[in-house]
Amino acid sequence: MRVGVITFPGSLDDRDAQRAVKLGGGEPVALWHGDHDLKNVDAIVLPGGFSYGDYLRAGAIAAHSPIMSEVIAAANGGMPVLGICNGFQILVESHLLPGGLVRNDHGDFVCRDQKLRVENTSTAWSNGFKEDEEIIIPLKNGEGGYIADQATLDRLEGEGQVVFRYLEVNPNGSANDIAGISNARGNVVGLMPHPEHATEAGFGPDTRAAMRSGTDGLTFFTSAISSLMANA
């Protein structure tokens, strides 16, 4: 399965995302923000970074990149799309996901291994987890506070669109401890933590078993690729 990873000016986790796709059993395909060609990919990852220097708002300029018109059409057609950190910000600015992301409530950049609870296992990117499973995924952001009006929050909670929730500590002041959400269809998922940094033993978060041994993030990519193969 071919999984496209888009590089925007200021992306810095695109190569990590490509490697995660490969480790998950897929074929990574490099996509460029200025193109209108998705190169016949089966899924798309919008990686983390600081697209266009986070000018205006994080993700606001990238949402108007030429390739995003193709991404929006593909997502609306059911293609799996994952937005990680800045990619999540781009998804909300593109209105593929509701709400918004603002400066952390404490005003500081945060970088930590973050415990999450899996709330929804029916999405394209979370179906390999167990419901209520607790995972550790690295987090690094300065504008990660998820916000939405009360009606939107109620809808997300009521319809099961909260996919991941922060545990033990809310690192950025997100409403309802929300770490990641999906669209109603479940093919588009955005989250602030970085699963691509927890895909290979020796390079992930610390666990009780060993330092840097955490690979919980790999399940994001194996979930999507397995789903694509099952539906091929």
Automatic annotation (TrEMBL):
Pathway: Purine metabolism; IMP biosynthesis via de novo pathway; 5-amino-1-(5-phospho-D-ribosyl)imidazole from N(2)-formyl-N(1)-(5-phospho-D-ribosyl)glycinamide: step 1/2. The keyword Hydrolase applies. Pfam families: GATase_5. Keywords: ATP-binding, Cytoplasm, Glutamine amidotransferase, Hydrolase, Ligase, Nucleotide-binding, Purine biosynthesis. Its EC number is 6.3.5.3, 3.5.1.2. The active site is at C85, H194, E196. It catalyses: L-glutamine + H2O = L-glutamate + NH4(+); N(2)-formyl-N(1)-(5-phospho-beta-D-ribosyl)glycinamide + L-glutamine + ATP + H2O = 2-formamido-N(1)-(5-O-phospho-beta-D-ribosyl)acetamidine + L-glutamate + ADP + phosphate + H(+). PANTHER family: PHOSPHORIBOSYLFORMYLGLYCINAMIDINE SYNTHASE SUBUNIT PURQ. Part of the FGAM synthase complex composed of 1 PurL, 1 PurQ and 2 PurS subunits. Part of the phosphoribosylformylglycinamidine synthase complex involved in the purines biosynthetic pathway. Catalyzes the ATP-dependent conversion of formylglycinamide ribonucleotide (FGAR) and glutamine to yield formylglycinamidine ribonucleotide (FGAM) and glutamate. The FGAM synthase complex is composed of three subunits. PurQ produces an ammonia molecule by converting glutamine to glutamate. PurL transfers the ammonia molecule to FGAR to form FGAM in an ATP-dependent manner. This is Phosphoribosylformylglycinamidine synthase subunit PurQ.
